[in-house]
């Protein structure tokens, strides 16, 4: 509600008034009464603030999935850069105001998924595929708060801005946070997280460790860390981190927004760009032997002519025939003009 300006109303043209100075006992109560009326009017027009937590808290939530095409201008288009579109959906929920801001993605072999949010929650569910194996939705969804070492729910951006996730081969789930930069190691019960090794580099408040990925079965305590400016580090639990050079850097105007491990130790790197005059763009690069020969095996680029948003989550699952199923998840920034998109692609690795 826009309140009227007392000063501007006193300047309206009209009959000249006798501007006699009134005693305080006259104008002070009158002014107080006017302010009270205006305050009451303003309060009457304020909308109630929506609840912060999931509804119901820490319980299952229903998820609505609306199908989206690869190319809105050409729905028949089903391939880009050798990646075959295997379905995509926009996710919403009528049960909660907090199914937003999903900032990374892990898809397991059984089709279950986990995605942290940049407001301190963790979303879990199971992929729903149709008879042809195409992605059509998410079922069995839950939304719960991440917790600190005291068992308390994380609150606010300062402590709860989760960005990256990695499932290590020995069991723990790693979550990286920005603003208060850190990596926490969660056990399977999600309780009592412990600190994990992180790169010893200076990070800006909102440009932190966007990507995490398990290194591979050869070293079950190792993991990749990617920072938003593009630095890539190989870390080991309770040991140290070392920067790895020679891996793909973000092109001009892009930033690193996600990492994922491949089935055979590959590193999948997600770069994203948003320029208002252009729109959102992404590049997914698949690197074989990322700590050795660093061979680029595949590359997927999508721009504004495709269904693209602020993609920050990437995950890969092996198919029975040797193909890969690549998943991309977007962070809608709690912005009603953006969407939570989950897309699937099939890709045949070169020999």
Structure commentary:
The protein is mainly beta and 351 residues long. The protein has a single domain (60-347), classed as Hemopexin-like domain (Hemopexin), CATH 2.110.10.10. The protein has helices at 6-9, 24-45, 156-160; strands at 60-61, 64-67, 79-80, 83-92, 106-107, 112-116, 121-129, 135-145, 162-167, 173-177, 182-186, 194-195, 209-214, 222-227, 232-236, 241-243, 255-261, 267-275, 279-288, 295-302, 311-318, 324-330, 340-347. The strands form five sheets. Strands 2, 3, 4, 21, 22 and 23 form a six-stranded antiparallel beta sheet that branches. A five-stranded antiparallel beta sheet has the order 1-8-7-6-5, with no helix packed on it. Strands 9-10-11-12 form a four-stranded antiparallel beta sheet, with no helix packed on it. The radius of gyration is 25 Å and the shape is globular. Residues 1-57 have low confidence and may be disordered. Residues 98-334 form the Phytase-like domain. It comes from Caulobacter mirabilis. InterPro entries: Phytase-like_dom, UCP031900. Residues 143-164 are annotated as: Disordered.
């Amino acid at each position: 509600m826009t309140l009227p300006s007392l000063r501007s109303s006193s300047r309206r043209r009209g009959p000249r008034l006798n501007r006699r100075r009134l005693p305080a006992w006259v104008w002070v109560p009158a002014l107080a009464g006017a302010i009270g009326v205006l305050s009451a009017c303003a309060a009457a027009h304020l909308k109630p603030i929506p609840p912060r937590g999931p509804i119901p808290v820490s319980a299952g939530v229903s998820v609505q999935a609306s199908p989206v095409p690869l190319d809105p201008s050409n729905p028949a288009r089903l391939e880009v850069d050798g990646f075959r579109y295997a379905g995509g959906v926009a996710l919403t929920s009528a049960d909660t105001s907090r199914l937003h801001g999903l900032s990374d993605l892990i898809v397991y072999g059984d089709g279950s998924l986990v995605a942290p949010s940049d407001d301190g929650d963790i979303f879990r569910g199971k992929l729903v595929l149709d008879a042809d194996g195409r992605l059509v939705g998410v079922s069995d969804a839950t939304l719960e708060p991440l917790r600190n070492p005291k068992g308390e729910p994380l609150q606010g951006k300062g402590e709860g801005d989760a960005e990256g996730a990695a499932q290590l081969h020995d069991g723990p789930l790693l979550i990286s946070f920005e603003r208060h930069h850190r990596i926490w190691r969660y056990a399977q019960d999600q309780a009592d997280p412990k600190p994990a090794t992180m790169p010893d580099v200076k990070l800006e408040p909102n440009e932190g460790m966007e990507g995490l990925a398990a290194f591979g079965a050869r070293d079950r305590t190792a993991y990749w860390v990617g920072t938003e400016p593009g630095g890539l580090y190989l870390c080991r639990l309770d040991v140290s981190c070392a920067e790895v050079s020679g891996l793909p850097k973000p092109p001009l105007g892009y930033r690193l927004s996600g990492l994922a491990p491949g089935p055979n130790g590959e590193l999948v790197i997600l770069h994203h760009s948003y320029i208002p005059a252009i729109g959102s763009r992404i590049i997914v690069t698949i690197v074989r032997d990322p700590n050795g020969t660093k061979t680029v095996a595949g590359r997927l680029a999508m721009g504004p002519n495709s269904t693209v948003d602020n993609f920050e989550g990437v995950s890969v699952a092996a198919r029975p025939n040797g193909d890969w199923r690549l998943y991309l998840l977007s962070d809608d920034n709690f912005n009603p003009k953006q969407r939570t998109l989950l897309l699937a692609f099939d890709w045949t690795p070169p020999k």
